[in-house]
Every structure is written in structure tokens, then in C-alpha cells.
Amino acid sequence: MEALPTATATGFLFESESAAPDNNSVLRKVQRILEAFGFEDETLSLSGLARRTGLAKASVYRLSQELVHWGLLERSNGEYRLGMRLFEIGQRVPRQRILRDLARPLMVDLVQATNETVHLAVVDGLEVLYLDKVSGQNSRISSPSRVAGRMPLHCTATGKALLAFGPRALLEEVMAAPLARVTPRTTVAPGLLAGELRRARELGYAAEFEQARLGYMSVAIPLAGATGTTVAALAVTAPTVRAKPDRFAGLLSLVGRRITKLLSAQQI
Fold this sequence. Notes:
By secondary structure, the protein is an alpha+beta fold. It is 42% helix and 22% strand. It has nine helices and ten strands. The strands form three sheets. Strands 7-6-5-10-9-8 form a six-stranded antiparallel sheet, with helices on both faces. Strands 1-2 form a two-stranded antiparallel sheet. Helix 1 (26-34) packs across helix 3, helix 5 (94-114) packs antiparallel against helix 9 and helix 6 crosses helix 8 (190-203). The longest helix has 21 residues, at 94-114. It starts with a strand and ends with a helix.
């Protein structure tokens, strides 16, 4: 069996591919430090990082100094913030970058046609990960959605579209896990969710009303790649007082077909 390098405090060791991840490894500690930063955290103190990661302050200090040296963290007034190097590396992720770049002009067209907010999302675990978001003048949704933000699959229109038109294994995994109640209107009964997804497959699009955020609704369609499998979802989100699900679905369908052609040409 081929041996793989494993990072340690002093260098690299080789171990079997089947070795279980070490929660106390240097890489896991670095992961905990970087993931300690939430969307609302511009900076965190050394004590704050130690508290959120559960690591010793001396260990956090030593690793943070190295991360600053690499540009993954920056120092600001004695505290730490995520570094520009992380942003630079993130922009290199090929599949997501190409998908976002292809969809962006058509998302802008969709915003101009609806004057609402348009989201592009993909699956990551049991959540949707927002790759892009474009808002019209009448809609400035800052929460809970944002670029690089996450929401549960079962409560969002993009998530429902990804579940309805995605692999069966993903749906079974979501159904087996507890369904969190994000708002009082979130569907948390597996049987009801299954019914919503059947309806989405019949209509060709998924919709949710106030399941992700009170006062708002969304309509979403799946985006197919070159092989015909679902690779992303595109949604229009609007206040419920301006809900036009049939019109949004029609416009999304037109834009979705154009994006699918572009994805197929790029072999995505």
C-alpha cells in the first residue's frame, strides 16, 4: 500500500493510507485555529482563539505565529485575523471558480429581470455552500445567506433542489440525521420533506416559504453538468410580499438551460 506523508511538529512522516486522522496532530490544530473565526469575527485575541479551539494558549501562540509567517493569519492591534493568503488560495479551487465565473453574468441578468436576490450554491456535507450572491436594488439580504456561507440542505430552496435532483445517497443521509428547525416553518418531519421533494421533481423546481428566514421565500432549480448530474443549484429569493414563484421558476429555467450548456462546454 502506498505510504502518504503526515505532517508533524518536526517534519513529515509516512504512514498507511488507512490510518485514522489524529485529532491532536498539528494539521488538526491548525484547522481548529482557522475555523475558529466566524463571519462576524474581524479579529480574535489569543485568549479567544484558545477558548474556541480548546487548545493550550502556548500551542495556539506558537502555531499562530507560523500562520502569520505564511500569510494565513495577520496581526492587527495585538489580535489575529484571517490572512489574504487564504483568500488567494481559495480563488484557485477550479471547479467552483469556473462554475461561479460562468454563472455570474447570467445571475446578473436574472437580478435585472426580477430585482431580487439570486444565489448560486453547491452541496458540502449536509449543507449548501453559497458560491455567489447577487442582489437587486429592492433586496439586500445580508443574513443568513452570504458568499461562502452555509445553510442546512433541508430548509433552503437550493438545498431542496440539490436533494430532489441529486444522488439518492445524499437524500438518505439527510433523512437519517436530525432535521434542525431553523424557523417555526422549517420542515423537520422526514415524511413531509420527502413529499416536498417529490413535488419539486414533478415541477422541475423547489420552493420554500419562510423555512430559512421569516418573511422570505425562495425558488430554486438544479444545474446539471456535462454528465447530466446535478452540480449546483440556482435560486431567486424575495420577501414573501413579493413572492412570484411561477414567474421566478420560469426565469430560472431559461437561465438554467444557458448555464447548463456552458457547463457542458467546459466539461464540468
